């Protein structure tokens, strides 16, 4: 029937707006036999049922409201389809997904009118393009056949594997399965095992599963490595001569203790007029990675480096990312620098963007710089460097104060970090908070990114708009429905936000005031998380709409070209404008930047998903060692099936299922983010502090189950 269905859809698409009797459809499709006519009748009935066809009398026509978009599926099996030109996505219930999978391109038809505050409901009619055809799962053997149980809970069916397609996999092993066919939603999809990763408890299999699931690659193609190997380790004298020589000046890097790809170095001078001269020196990757080379094609394809818990999947080969381009101490390195003169109020009153060469005097970790700030500097630290660090800290405080005053939102959410043993097993999990040294580097990078963006963007104001194509980092205003949830949460916690419900009237400074108001309260991190979720996602675009969260009119990414391709694009554009860009080249950039921006945004999302999943994998593995332990936590989510609790010490989340809340029948009060006991009126509300015991851990599903403890210290 699938083939007939596709032929019927194609028939109507080729003749939009026309009506046909069933006999005429059969004649034009060449269907004559009783069997063919039965299939045609079934296909017509199917399209009538899902709303794709409309029948008037004896005539059938194709519904004009058929839409194409990309589907996202949540863990509950609900789908949300984004369609170009529509402000809000369409809701797809699990029973109307057909064979759609997360990320697929689909055809949908709206089936229900918009209800107040609700999305339009729709049904998937057809999957037009699969996002993924390879999936990770656990191999299971049955007497007559085999199955792969997908790791991704959004994949709702086990994948059938024929006896001759198992690749000799053994029960319990993690495998990569290729999806060969899934035409009928009522039958299992069929697949072939193409790679065996190993058993879940073997070293590296957990993170490798994440890597394979997102189609990431540690190794580079041979031709890319050959090109990388040909790059000289030394800098030509003529290149040094044409650059601003900054090698005698003090500059240094500040990075995580385990970093090897040092993108940026900083320098600072106090001028005679009392102003600061801040230098932000960025690895000049564009000198080494030229357009239309194998290195460039591979870097663009990857889009970004991906930072997993225990390893990095780099955008560039190691020779470039960790050696030639990396701003290592005590060696000459080519850089692209922004020098900014900053007055005592934190305003950049002058700047210069220049190709430079530096000689970093030290490689600092964030912890070492924090020790200097706290008055406990490392032994034998040069006094001139010590003075610079203190001056930088003073300047960063000034810049933070000004940025917040101007309306920038300052989210300060901690992260979950791990200490791993030699086998990759997490032996320690800890909460990592932001240090003053982190803020120091962040403020300098934000200012450099903003300055180079203004350097080009202001040229287009006002008459020559888009005369200078550029790649911006943009952030739109909050998403209406999600922002309504944020306002409702504030009300539940008793915070009067005084915010307009119209997203067009919201200002970032208003949200920042709320963040400051709840700081230190038990619900502060929850409110920050919901505020972040209510925001639009930052992305790359050649059209500048500003950055809402930062409250910047101009912003771009310039400071991390070793690990982000957009920064490499920005470097190239800056240089070309400096040299004088021919009109044909301007037109070329204007044509290609939209697709480049979309590609880079998409690759960033993939990397972020992989990074989050690798953290979840290690969190679950860590909790497997602590089943039965008791911890303090805070209710981080409330649903109709239970409450989620985040362990305060580790920032690890688990579920207390509603069936395990004893002593009453609990009702979900979604408006107040709580479960309420029908008889006792006892409530469990978002933000409440509770004590839990680790009851069960499911490694395959990445799930942790808690049980609630009463009156425990």
Name the assembly state.
Answer: single chain
Strand order, sheet with most strands: 6-5-4-7-8
The helix count comes to: 17
Characterize the biggest β-sheet.
5 strands, antiparallel
Q: Alpha-carbon distance between the termini?
A: 63 Å
Helix share bin:
25-40%
**Category by helix and strand content:** alpha+beta
Please specify the SSE layout and strand pairing.
Blueprint: H1 2-13, E1 19-21, H2 22-29, H3 34-49, E2 53-56, E3 59-62, E4 67-73, E5 79-82, E6 90-92, E7 105-110, E8 122-129, E9 134-141, E10 146-150, E11 159-161, E12 174-181, E13 190-198, H4 205-213, H5 222-229, H6 237-241, E14 244-245, E15 252-255, E16 264-270, E17 276-283, H7 285-288, H8 294-302, E18 306-307, E19 312-313, H9 318-324, E20 332-342, E21 348-359, E22 362-365, H10 366-373, H11 383-405, E23 415-420, E24 426-432, H12 436-457, E25 472-474, H13 480-492, H14 508-518, H15 524-534, E26 539-541, H16 565-579, H17 583-624, E27 630-639, E28 642-647, E29 652-657, E30 666-669, E31 674-677, E32 683-685, E33 689-698, E34 703-709
Helix pairs in contact: 1-3, 4-17, 11-12, 13-15
